[in-house]
TrEMBL record:
InterPro entries: O-mannosyl-transferase_TMTC, TMTC_DUF1736, TPR-like_helical_dom_sf, TPR_rpt. The keyword tRNA processing does not apply. The keyword Transmembrane helix applies. Its EC number is 2.4.1.109. SMART domains: TPR (SM00028). It is an enzyme of class 2 (transferase). It is found in: Endoplasmic reticulum; Membrane. The chain crosses the membrane at residues 43-61, 135-155, 167-186, 192-212, 224-241, 290-309, 376-395, 407-428, 434-453, 462-480. This is dolichyl-phosphate-mannose--protein mannosyltransferase. It is a multi-pass membrane protein. Pathway: Protein modification; protein glycosylation. Belongs to the TMTC family.
Length: 763
């Protein structure tokens, strides 16, 4: 049953309109009539949806930060208290300046703000709080879907007291359950960066519900409220500030207004426009303020986009061919056919969400380059179904069918448009997270199809049991997929069977193994990543690093040289190449590689540190100190650079300068035990025994198993004349490291001295 608000003023037209409304109420078909499904009060329906959506993803609550979470959260300085809040409005989702050439241009300041609040309340990077918020958001959205589906499937009608009626309680519950348990949503809920999609969806739905409130009769008797239309526009803007897709709700509100509020027949309108029919105003375009409301929506949307454009600048984001190979194809035919194939795969993920993967790029889906490719069948099937649905949506004599199919297609297609490559290049092939909103349209179409089958079926309960089985399977699939998102190891390995041709999958498995110290296994996966994508410079860089550590310098140099040849501005590869060349004692080439790295990344403290080590090996002490000083200026907490400065100054006899540098370092990094140790050595040589002892003991307390700490403290006591304490710490040091030659010699000297003292005492 569909509703249009009548005017409450007493005039001659009012009785006729009311009679027309009652006739419509009697004749409009009801989806629930033939559906065998649970009929629950609205409150209980929402409780059931909330509980089931919680059960689907509850096991992700204590998962780690995985995949993109590292860049968006852990490495994002916008989350930290020292970063001004104003910076969030000038940075992208990953914390880079929007004006930067390397910016992703993903402008989602409100999502980043929620991450920042999470970080501040948790007192650090503890993933539990982040995951819990995501689960709560999905449960909230699923509950709101009960109201949204009741409007989309049953129509919009209010009581005399202004309370909205649910005219499709069974089918709205079924559609909400389908949405709540859809496995394709796992990435958004279990992956913390998916909060952008969740927040966007929340305000997207609130905007829609707010727009529906505009048609509740107000005290003045007007047939719509401008206030609620403007509220809807504002909520759409908030949705867009969470993620780009949010702006599409304004278009959907316009579609809903035309089809449901004004009962516009699109085909009839097109025909009248083509024939320049003078009765066009009777087609519903100008009735009930439709044109005025659409003007408000369009003006609001244009203003929002303009402001966003002004903040972001005109430059498009920089993506590479591996991110979205079809968009880099020279042939328009190849681009078009592959885009359509991607659409068919997205549709398949909605229909059969069994093969899910955290990343679909890097060869996971090879390009279609010829019409002889059998995969053409998939996109042909997609367009066959879409054209069939569009024809029914436009041409069916059943106005109820027309509206539901058009709304279903609208909610399926319109939110997907920003990810379609039609307006601008996107940085992915397929991304499961972008199907979160379009799945609303899928749930509408599925539920409507179920109602049609129920109408024809003789054994309705068997059909209901089948749908219940689908829901249960999806619940189990969600739980399984959520468990895979709990850790990077499980997530990356789960992708090997889905996308075995994806070089990034093998790269991430290899990186995860390398981080755990399993270098032999990591090498295998890195090599496979390079084989699948011979231009994969990051895999070459990481493989080169491992080979360098295993002293396989020749192959490491070949890989790193190839990486910088493919990508000449790859600063990390240049630095690693310099390290390998330094190990091969090709010092001039190493120095050149380091400076090339710094040329491409001017703020590169690690490279300055390695350059300083090179200069120290060449006895260019001043140059070494300058390089390490640059490293500490760029990164004040660079402990290794501070330590090397202290040690070099100590070794060259500059004890006063070494002491000054050590004290400066400890002011910046007060809990670094290695700095305490280095400064304690300098103070000991300067005969500041008491202060040196205090630093040694503090360092030992922080790292009690460091043999050198005990050994050098023993040397201090030995010089100081505290021979018993010296003996004690020599013995602890030798127990921790029996092979330490200097400590053993000093200990033997001390023992001989103690024996001599005992003999003198005995005499």
């Amino acid at each position: 049953m569909y509703f249009f608000q009548t005017c409450s003023q007493h005039n001659a037209e009012a009785p006729n309109l009311e009679q027309a409304f009652h006739r419509m109420a009697q004749t409009e078909p009801n989806l629930d009539r033939d559906v065998s499904w649970f009929l629950l009060p609205s409150y209980w329906a929402k409780m059931v949806v909330a509980l089931i959506s919680f059960l689907c993803f509850a096991n992700s609550y204590d998962g780690d930060f995985v995949f993109d979470d590292s860049e968006a959260i852990i490495n994002n300085k916008d989350l930290r208290a020292e970063t001004p809040l104003g910076d969030l409005w000038h940075h992208d989702f990953w914390g880079s300046k929007l004006s930067s050439n390397t910016s992703h241009k993903s402008y989602r300041p409100l999502t980043v703000l929620t991450f920042r609040i999470n970080y501040l309340f948790a007192g650090g990077f503890y993933p539990v709080g982040f995951h819990v918020i995501n689960i709560i958001l999905h449960c909230t959205i699923s509950v709101l879907m009960v109201d949204v589906f009741s409007i989309l499937l049953g129509g919009l009608q209010f009581t005399n007291k202004g309370r909205r009626l649910n005219l499709a309680p069974k089918t709205s519950l079924l559609a909400a359950l389908l949405f709540a348990v859809h496995p394709v949503h796992t990435e958004c809920v279990a992956g913390i960066v998916g909060r952008a999609d969740l927040l966007c969806a929340l305000f997207f739905l609130l905007s829609f519900l707010g727009y529906c409130k505009a048609f509740r009769e107000n005290k003045e008797g007007h047939n719509f409220s401008i206030f609620w239309v403007l509220v809807s526009v504002i909520l759409g803007a908030v949705a867009m500030l969470c993620k780009e897709q949010g702006i599409t709700i304004l278009g959907l509100n316009a579609v809903f207004d035309a089809l449901v509020i004004n009962k516009l027949n699109v085909l009839e309108l097109i025909q009248k426009l083509l024939h320049k029919d003078k009765s066009l105003e009777n087609a519903g375009l100008l009735r009930k303020g439709l044109l005025f409301r659409i003007t408000l929506l369009m003006s609001g949307g244009a203003s929002i986009l303009y402001i966003r454009w002004r903040i972001m600048g005109t430059g498009p984001p920089a993506f590479t061919e591996v991110d979205n190979p079809a968009s880099f194809a020279d042939s328009l035919f190849v681009r078009a056919i592959n885009y359509n194939y991607y659409y068919s795969l997205n549709a398949w993920l909605l229909l059969c969400p069994w093969w899910l993967c955290f990343d679909w790029s890097m060869g996971c889906i090879p390009l279609i380059k010829s019409v002889s490719d059998w995969r053409i069948i998939a996109l042909a099937a997609l367009w066959f179904c879409l054209i069939g649905l569009i024809c029914q949506a436009l041409c069916s004599e059943d106005s109820h069918k027309r509206r539901i199919l058009t709304l279903g297609l609208g909610f399926l297609i319109i939110p997907f448009l920003p990810a379609s490559n039609l307006f601008f290049r996107v940085g992915f092939v397929i991304a499961e997270r972008v199907i979160y909103l379009p799945s609303i349209g899928y749930c509408i179409l599925f539920t409507y199809g179920f109602s049609l089958l129920s109408k024809q079926a003789k054994k309705k309960k068997i059909l209901a049991v089948a749908v219940l089985g689908i829901l249960l399977i999806n619940v189990m699939r969600c739980a399984l997929r959520s468990s895979q998102w709990r850790s990077e190891e499980q997530l990356f390995r789960s992708a090997l069977s889905v996308c075995p041709l994806n070089a990034k999958v093998h790269y991430n498995v290899g990186k995860n193994l390398a981080d755990k110290g399993n270098q032999s296994a990591a090498i295998k996966y890195y090599r496979e990543a390079v084989r699948l994508n011979p231009k994969y410079v990051h895999a070459m860089n990481n493989l080169g690093n491992i080979l360098k550590e295993r002293n396989e310098l020749q192959e490491a140099e070949e890989l790193l040289s190839l990486a910088v040849q493919i990508q000449p501005d790859f600063a990390a590869a240049w630095m690693n190449l310099g390290i390998v060349q330094n190990s091969l004692r090709r010092f001039e080439e190493a120095e050149q590689s380091y400076w090339t790295a710094i040329k491409h990344r001017k703020k590169y403290p690690d490279c300055y540190y390695n350059l300083g080590r090179l200069y120290a090996d060449l006895n260019r002490h001043i140059d070494a100190l300058n390089a390490w000083r640059n490293a500490t200026v760029l990164k004040p907490e660079h402990s290794l650079a501070w330590n090397n400065m202290i040690i070099l100054l100590d070794n060259t006899g500059n004890l006063a300068q070494a002491e000054a540098v050590g004290r400066e370092a400890l002011e910046l990094i007060p809990n670094d035990h290695s700095l305490m140790f280095s400064l304690a050595n300098v103070l000991g040589k300067s005969q500041k025994y008491k202060e040196s002892e205090a630093l040694f003991l503090k360092a030992i307390k922080a790292n009690p198993n460091a043999a050198s700490y005990h050994g050098n403290l023993a040397v201090l006591y030995h010089r100081w004349g505290n021979l018993d304490l010296a003996k004690k710490h020599y013995e602890v040091s030798l127990k921790l490291d029996p092979t330490a030659p200097g400590t053993k010699e000093n200990y033997n000297l001390l023992r001989r001295k103690l024996e001599q003292l005992q003999k003198k005492g005995g005499a």
